[in-house]
Write a structure and sequence with these properties.
alpha+beta; globular; nine-stranded mixed beta sheet; disordered N terminus; 255 residues; 2 domains; two-stranded antiparallel sheet; 4 helices
Length: 255
């Protein structure tokens, strides 16, 4: 889904009427810098969209990156809850959750929203957005058996959390889980122009990454993505790598 910094107006007076641009209460906000190590040729405006895993619908929360000279700054304001399709279960949680990543895209038609087919050009390297739904007791209890050598329970409160990919590794048992890691909030989420798809992570621990299919690159002529597909297909023929199904389709249609 997308990120958009929208102006809004609240007409103050008897009753306090909201203007047409007012989108309701802001639920969550993340921000950071947009960085690039190489020159970027963009036909439109660089924007940010928040993509929820497992969700096939196009993003709706938009945010303009004001400058295309780097480093630029962005802010993503979320006004809508994740859709039902984005909720997933994981062996480490007692409730359904949602996970998303902010991705950069080239708004080629300059219409202020992400349209399927517009080039996805970057994203975060180490973090994402985890959503915990409202709960009776207000928290998710992480399976304490995953906490190596600790009897202390690790918990997540309801709401949106900016989390590190290190947390995913710990929750899925790849490294020892410490409660401090669960409670850690990422203060800023920088986005990098480049091969963002290599940083997609397996939050439901099923060792496949098809949940990110709709957030994979859309340009079959992207040389970095083609090279990535060829390398991963040789290293991991079982398809347990990001964008594997998109890569398979790309290689099936290649001349």
């Amino acid at each position: 889904m997308s990120a958009r910094v929208l102006p809004f107006f609240l007409l103050m007076g008897c009753g306090g009427l909201a203007g047409a641009d007012w989108r309701g209460e802001r639920l969550f906000s993340i921000s950071g810098d947009v960085l690039s190590l190489e020159p970027v040729d963009l036909s439109g405006n660089l924007r940010v969209a928040l993509f929820w895993a497992w969700n096939e619908d196009q993003p709706v929360e938009q945010s303009v990156v004001v400058e295309t000279s780097f480093p630029a700054h962005y802010q993503l304001d979320v006004y809508a809850w994740p859709p039902e399709e984005a909720m997933f279960t994981a062996p480490w949680s007692n409730v359904e959750l949602a996970i998303g990543v902010p991705l950069l895209y080239d708004d080629a038609d300059d219409d202020g929203r992400y349209d399927p087919g517009e080039a996805l050009v970057g994203g975060p390297q180490e973090s994402g957005v985890l959503y915990v739904p409202p709960l009776d007791d207000g928290e998710v209890v992480i399976d304490e058996q995953l906490v190596d050598g600790r009897s202390e329970e690790a918990t997540l409160t309801s709401g949106f959390h900016a989390v590190t990919n290190d947390l995913q590794s710990a929750l899925c048992g790849e490294v020892a889980l410490q409660p401090e890691l669960v409670r850690q909030e990422v203060p800023r989420t920088d986005l990098y122009v480049g091969p963002f798809w290599i940083h997609f992570t397996d939050w439901n621990c099923d060792q496949v990454l098809t949940e990110w299919t709709d957030a994979c690159p859309t340009d079959p002529g992207d040389p970095l993505f083609v090279e990535f597909c060829l390398e991963q297909a040789q290293l991991l023929p079982d398809g347990s790598y990001p964008c594997a199904d998109v890569c398979a389709e790309l290689m099936d249609t290649a001349p």
